[in-house]
């Protein structure tokens, strides 16, 4: 970090609102009307108010073989290319085929969970995340957060539009659901070299007020807008060029409390997808950094390294 630039900054205390994804779920869009979908995904569905619609390659698993006491081998086909994947277990296993279905049992003859989710995560551990082209980002909140993303997607005109325009061969429409962290967080930068150190105490008070009084719907809307700005998905219109803006109601309190930025993140150790768009390449850690002020002397959180 260029510490010499700190004495050019306006204030000794700057705040940035911190937003990040707490958990996630995903499923092929074709499963949306499956009545058992919500129960299969679990409790996280009720907490997920952000959704991403995108394209990912279809991955097929076939030709299972047991090659040792604790290892199986299978063929993975993606984008018309096949490669071998080995999966090792911590104990002896037995692979059994019955009417084109495969089952794995441990040394106590208990069946081991062996579905597509298991195979998918074994694949990404060995080969890396599955590409996911982000086409649309939206939110579902409803009254008091009672509406989840699955409810919204069942009647979603953009999802229908994307589907009708056609899906490339060997790809499928996939949906990612994101739960935003359930508590408020902020970053605070203390700069003893700033031009103005007279209002530090008042700026800390305003920061704490914003920290404890930001509503869930505000966090969700700001997170949605941040990543629309970050990815600029093909089918989004709102927020691509209009975020941030002093005219946005959801940002009014950030400007009132004189926050300098918003930092929104997606980071999971075992994230299944590599998210990308025409604007962004796949990353391990996705960070949308939104500056709320254009004047360079307020640019505390985006200093050059």
Described by strand count, sense and barrel closure, the largest sheet is: 8 strands, mixed
The structural domain count equals 2
General shape: elongated
Computed Rg: 23 Å
- DSSP, total strands: 14
Low-confidence stretches: none
Average pLDDT level: 82
User: What sequence of helices (H) and strands (E) makes up the elements?
Assistant: EHEEEEEEEHEHHEEHHHEEE
* N- to C-terminal distance: 4 Å
Write the layout of secondary structure elements.
Elements: E1 13-28, H1 37-41, E2 50-57, E3 59-68, E4 71-78, E5 81-88, E6 93-98, E7 101-106, E8 111-112, H2 116-127, E9 130-139, H3 149-153, H4 157-164, E10 171-180, E11 185-190, H5 200-213, H6 216-231, H7 252-256, E12 261-266, E13 273-276, E14 286-291
